[in-house]
Specification:
It is a single chain. Strands 22-23-24-25-29 form a five-stranded antiparallel β-sheet, with no helix packed on it. With 405 residues, it is an all-beta fold. It has no helices and 29 strands. It has a domain of 170 residues.
Amino acid sequence: MAKIDILSVDPDWFDVGGGVLCDLLGAGNGTTPDFLIGGGKQFGHPERGFIMWYHWDGTAWRETEISRDFRHQVGAAAMDVTGSGKLDLVFGEWTNEWEGEWTKVTGRPGGNIYWAEQPADPFTEPWVIHFLGDGCLNAHDISVGDVSGSGRQEVIVRNKDRAIFRFTPPEDPTQPWYRQVVAEQQEGDGLDLYDITGTGSLDIVTNTGFYENVAGDGSEWRFRPYGVEDLGFDPESRVAAGDLTNDGAVTVVVTESEVTSSARILLLTSRDRGATWTRNMLIGAERDFRALHTLRLLDLNGDGRLDIFTAEMENGKTDGIARQPRWYAFLNKGELTFDEVVLLDRNLGAHQGCVGPIFRQGQPAFMAKEWHPNASNGKDGRNHVVTISDFDWSRDRSIRQLKGK
């Protein structure tokens, strides 16, 4: 059976953003033994936040503090900013410039994005935090990729209910980065980078449509909607794109990530490079899923097809009594047919969960932390980091077969 570990965490944790799984020390080695998270106290508290690093050293998890001076936003990503071959951390910070209920949020003015530079000895030496750019008043989603085709990665930021920005590094990345406005405003959240048009360049994928990289170098963006306005999807969502049919088509997976009932999972598939889309509802409202704030695509069982990992939040979205949060895998059987598997049913929610070969090559494991714990959760009301490994797909049976409809 699967092995489940619940890590001991700082009892002062409250709102925990981030959720980045990578290999900080040796990018490209085929494993992802590092989990980066950040956050802070609940809204209204004056304390600064934190950025923590969990490293699997082969026998145990090693916790290292990167910073206690930044109230980490939800969005984060890892990239080699300096060209050293080792990964650095890009993240957003909560700001105090919001209106209404958000005026008490701790943070520096400006809505800043930063990158934390990995030192020579990241376990003992301080991580230098560099200013990257501003104007991101709610940096909910951060993705990195070579949008320009120059061979150098850039940063895409989607601000919840606000603008989408592209940040391009200067020759000296410790100086402020160039900011391009992709969209002045778009309701909701959810972001991915994928070559939908088949031109060899990355497009920007959202929950209601994608921004075509018209010239292939990031200089011009054109929004192309999916045509799903009549579905009434909640604008707060998770988004992931990939070839789920193994025939060159692209499928965009969308989960409703914040609703307290009837969360859905939608599959949008295009076989003509984004010109038209067919839609399949993998999970409908009648299943009453809640707050699916985790979404990742990966071949989980080694059959060559991309599968889906998602999980429900706590934070009042699932109360832990009448409705406990679960973690799910949807194993791709082909032709948009899936086997649904419950990965975790221990009253422990997930926020921005990750999946990857944490402990060994070719063996995906699942890892997540919560955003804001329920008082009645399986960790005595405290926050948590959970890992699931050694899942035996032949023994841990699916609970039902599903086909999008």
